[in-house]
Amino acid sequence: QVQLVESGGGLVQAGGSLRLSCAASGGTIRSYDMGWFRQAPGKEREFVARINWSGSIKSYADSVKGRFSGSRDNAKNTVYLQMNSLKPQDTAVYYCAAGRNHPDYNYWGQGTQVTVSS
Asked: Which residues pair with 81 in a beta bridge?
């Protein structure tokens, strides 16, 4: 059973940057697609980014394209989300997820709060 733990969230001013990490334990994520999602208050959870098992295929929501970048280090069993040029509308709880094939994710982290002040 893979367990995922996100970290790196916090409070940042608009225009700033944060780097989220998602560390896996209980199993390797080497063969899993990894996704990042977010949920803002009163809104449904939405897709943010996806990195395939090798890191060779990445896709992003239009709202974050050009500002966010996903990466992974399979040796460290960790994935990352670099978030630049943050906007107040990026405020949300960010979750990472693991699955055999995007968009089907079986394992989810508990989330990390990102708050962007204007």
From this structure: 20, 70
